[in-house]
Design a protein that fits this description.
Elements (H helix, E strand, L loop, with lengths): L2 E7 L2 H10 L5 E8 L9 E2 L7 H10 L2 E6 L2 H5 L2 H7 L4 E2 L3 H8 L1 H11 L6 E4 L2 H11 L3 E5 L8 E4 L2 H13 L10 E5 L4 E4 L2 E4 L3 E3 L4 E2 L2 E3 L3 E4 L4 E4 L6 H21 L5 E11 L2 E8 L6 H8 L4 H10 L13 E8 L16 H4 L5 E5 L2 E4 L2 E4 L3 E9 L2 H12 L15 H5 L2
Parallel strand pairs: 1-2, 1-4, 2-3, 4-5
Antiparallel strand pairs: 6-9, 7-8, 7-9, 10-17, 11-12, 11-17, 13-16, 14-15, 16-19, 17-18, 19-23, 20-23, 21-22
Helix pairs in contact: 1-10, 5-6, 6-9, 7-8
């Protein structure tokens, strides 16, 4: 009997997961709540917000949902998994206690210190004057992070003292991130290439995915403000099997063990962002879900049935499951609204997606889009995620950019160097 699945979220991450779930022979109907302007192509969209736990659970009971898959960090951090489990509903993702590894930077950094996980030197502050004195003592470059969840925009990489002082003012005095900025974490700046590690966990056993590389800032050459992610590539050839084994031993397993020791085993995805420094890998941050845009490249490369994979996590059966991957490479490029990550306008008609998907091995996943009067229009900062696969990374990059060139809307913006670091090597 086919099983119904509910995916919670609005981003291309959730579109890609729904796209992959739809390919499972075990899956019947796929629902996405609330979805976006493109998820209706692979699933039935449900107009329920990601934080409307009661309505989501009622829908899951009504539609006899076999498994709910949670994409974004906010509902995880606020306890949607606990809520569903209390209703007897099967759900993939970490509990509120386990999700603290992402929802609180202070909790995460303290866990790293306690578990001897390599990370940047840090200190936690609640008072502006004390934080400012510490920054002036340490000097620039320095990194300042908001404690709570602000969708990838809470990290300030300050290359000058002026930037650091402005960041502290914005966070602690101007309160631009509201309750999320009640604490700040100030840490040393780490040099080296950044990579994304994704480790699937059933609470006891974990399996590491191929390495990917996100491009987090708005500008080429990693300049400008932090965003939710402007593109990704996978796998990263210069990250060796030995590197991954080292990361597993020194980062992934200790983190999962530390959470389990605290009585909150993580079931779902542990996603550490790392800097590969001259002194080895160091953790920048932990996330408790798939990255976006990393999820898009993983869904394109995964050969295994993702429904079976999520089920293995929930059932504690990950040791019995082997993940298979397609050969080759995947690249995804985010097309954003002009002005993002600051102010931007919405409602511009989007054209060219069908033409883009005629480029070999290209799939376009949606983010900030919606249908309005029969027309697809922009409805967010990150608008589309254009994903390409190929046998070589270079060709995957070329295909992705060829497809991007066929899409048009007023003010559209994208980085033109996605994949360049991976191509150039270490």
């Amino acid at each position: 009997m086919a099983e119904n699945v509910l995916v919670i979220g609005t981003y291309p991450r959730e579109h890609a997961i729904a796209w992959k779930l739809k390919q499972s022979p075990r899956v019947g109907k796929v629902y996405v709540a609330p979805g976006n302007g493109g998820t209706g192509n692979v699933a039935e969209t449900v107009p329920i917000g990601v934080m409307e736990f009661e309505k989501l659970a009622a829908f899951a009971l009504e539609k006899k949902i076999s498994l709910t898959v949670v994409g974004p960090e906010n509902p995880l951090g606020e306890g949607i998994v606990d809520y569903f489990q209390a209703k007897g509903l099967r759900i993939w993702g970490p509990t509120k206690a386990a999700a603290q590894i992402e929802s609180s930077k202070a909790f995460s950094k303290q866990l790293m210190a306690d578990a001897n996980i390599p990370t940047a030197e840090f200190k936690i502050f609640t008072e502006h004057a004390e934080a400012l004195a510490y920054v002036r003592e340490k000097g620039a470059p320095i990194v300042i992070k908001v404690d709570g969840m602000v969708f990838g925009k809470g990290a300030y990489v300050c290359m000058t003292m002026e930037e650091a002082e402005m960041a502290l003012k914005e966070i602690m005095l101007d309160n631009v991130h509201h309750a999320a900025s009640s604490k700040v974490v100030i840490e040393e700046f780490l040099d080296g290439q950044e990579i994304s590690i994704h480790a699937l966990s059933d609470g006891e056993t974990s399996v590491i995915f191929p390495t990917s590389q996100d491009h987090k800032t708005i500008g080429e050459n990693d300049t400008g403000k932090m965003t939710g992610g402007m593109g990704a590539a996978a796998p990263i050839s210069w990250v060796s099997k030995e590197n991954l084994a080292d990361i597993d031993t020194r980062v992934v397993r200790p983190a999962l063990h530390a959470l389990a020791q605290r009585g909150s085993p993580l079931v779902g995805m542990l996603y550490p962002g790392l800097k590969m420094t001259s002194k080895g890998p160091k953790v920048l941050e932990f996330n408790a879900r798939f990255g976006c845009p990393e999820a898009e490249v993983y869904m394109r490369l995964m050969k295994s049935d993702v429904f079976e994979l999520f089920n293995a996590c929930v059932e504690g059966a990950l040791p019995d499951f082997t993940i298979e991957w397609n050969s080759g490479f995947a690249v995804t490029i985010i097309i954003a609204s002009g002005g993002y990550p600051d102010e931007y306008k919405k409602g511009f008609p989007i054209t060219g997606i069908d033409e883009a998907e005629r480029v070999p091995d290209v799939v376009v996943f949606h983010a900030g889009t919606k249908q309005a009067s029969g027309q697809l229009v922009t409805d967010g900062g990150r608008v589309l995620s254009v994903s390409a696969t190929s046998k070589t990374l270079q060709e995957a990059v070329e295909r992705a950019y060829e497809a991007v060139g066929k899409i048009h809307f007023e003010g559209m913006y994208y980085r033109r160097d996605i994949g360049a670091k991976a191509l150039s090597g270490k």
